[in-house]
Amino acid sequence: MTRRTNPKLSDVARGAGVSLATASRALSEPELVRGDTRERVREVAAMLGYVPHGAARALATRESRTVGALFPPVDNPIFAAATQALAHELAMSGYTLLLATHEYDPAAELQVTRTLLERGVDGLVLVGLDRDPELYRLLAQAGVPYELMWSLDPSGFHYCVGVAHRIASVRATQHLLDLGHREFAVSAGRTAHNDRTRERLAGVREALAARAIELRPDRVAQAEFVLPQAREACRELLARSPGFTALVCGNDVLAIGALAECASRGIRVPEDLSIVGFDDIDMASGVTPALTTVRVPAAEMGRRAAARMLARLAGRDVERTEELPAELIVRASTGPAPR
After folding, report:
1. Which has the closest alpha carbon to 134: 157, 161, 116, 110?
2. Judgement on whether residues 251 and 194 belong to the same structural domain of the protein
3. Is 248 helix (H, G, I), strand (E, B) or coil?
4. Helix, coil or strand: residue 184
5. Which domain holds residue 20?
6. What's the CATH number where 100 sits?
7. Are residues 45 and 99 in the same domain?
8. What is the predicted pLDDT for the residue at 59?
9. Is 76 contained in some domain?
10. DSSP string covering 80-133, please?
11. Strands in 151-258 per DSSP E
12. Per-residue pLDDT for the chain (339 aa), expressed as one digit of tens each?
C-alpha cells in the first residue's frame, strides 16, 4: 500500500480487507469490533494517514463530539482555570471544547450561541444566570443540553454547578465584623449583566444590616476586573469617603489592585485597612500581605460541569443543581479594627 493524498475510509477498508461498515465501526465504535480486526483497521488508517471527516461523521451519527462554552473574558485567572479543567475533562472522553467569549454582553452571547449551534455542538456550557431569554428558547428548539457554571439557579429549572455567592460574601463580611470593623467600603465589579457581582454585593449589605450597619452609597465603587481600574476604584473610595477600616472587594483582582494602591499611599494593611477578596486565584497567596479571600473551586467546577454534560449526553440523569463549597481563607490582609 502507498500513502495517498486525502485517503478515504474506503481506502482503509480495502487495505484492511474489511467492509466499509466494519472499518467505520472499528474507528468510531471500537467496542463493537473484534480486537484483531480493530487493530488491523487502526494500523492501516495510521499507515495511510487517514483522519475521520468530522462533518461527515456528525451527519451520520448526529453527534459532533464537540461541546461549546461561552465565557466572559478568559484573561480573568479564575475563568482560565475553569476553562482548562473543562477542556481537559471533555478531551479525556473524546470531546473537543469550542470556546467563545463575550464582554458581559447578552446580545453578543446570543449571537455566538447561534454560531456554535450552527457548528453542530452537542452541548453548551454557560456562565451565570443573566442572559437574553431568547437564548434558552434557541437551545430548546435545537434540543441541545446546557449547563450553567458559577451560579445556582434559585428556580431549580436550569442545570447548574456553582457556589452560593451571597452566603459566601456574608461570611467574609462577618469575618471583618468579628474583628471589630464598623466602617465599610466595597470595591465591586460591574453589576450590569453579572448576577455574581450583584449577589456578592448583596451579601455585604445583608451581613452589615444584621449588625444594624448601613453601607453608604458613596462607599461603593464599581470597576472592571483589571488592575488599573481596581486601583482607580480604591482611589475613588479614599477620595470621596475616607474613614473606612474594612474594604470588601468583588474579586481578587480588585483586592490586589487595592493592595497596590494602599502600598503607594503608605496605608498599612491590615493595621490601617483590612481587605478581603473573592475567588482565591493563585496570586492571592503570593502578594504582600497575603490576601484573605473566598476560595471558589474553579478547576473543580470545570471538571464537574464537564462530567455532568458528558453524563447527560450519554442519557444519564444528573441533579439539576450541584453546589460546591466556597470557603473563607483567612490570611494576613485582615486584622482587628484600628482603635
Report:
1. 110
2. yes
3. strand
4. strand
5. 9-52
6. 3.40.50.2300
7. no
8. 43
9. yes
10. HHHHHHHHHHHHHTT-EEEEEE-SS-HHHHHHHHHHHHHTT-SEEEEESS-S-H
11. 160-162, 184-189, 220-223, 246-249
12. 443 456 788 899 999 999 988 988 888 778 888 889 999 998 998 888 776 654 445 445 456 789 999 988 766 788 889 999 999 999 999 999 999 988 888 999 999 998 888 888 999 999 999 999 999 988 998 889 999 999 999 999 999 999 999 999 999 999 999 999 999 999 999 999 999 999 999 999 999 999 999 999 999 999 999 999 999 999 999 999 999 999 999 999 999 999 999 999 999 999 999 999 999 999 999 999 999 999 999 999 999 999 999 999 999 999 999 999 999 999 999 999 998
Asked whether residue 334 is domain-assigned, the answer is no
Verify that 149 and 213 share a domain, yes or no.
Answer: no
| Count of the separate structural domains present in the chain | 3
**First-last CA distance in the chain:** 86
Q: Tell me which DSSP letter residue 67 carries.
A: E
Q: 133 is written with which cell numbers?
A: 431569554
Helix (H) or strand (E) holding 261: helix 252-265
pTM of the model: 0.81
Instruction: Please tell me the distance from the alpha carbon of residue 150 to that of residue 168, in angstroms, as a whole number.
Output: 13
The angle formed by the CA atoms of residues 323, 328 and 332, to the nearest 5 degrees, is 160
One domain for residues 303 and 239? no
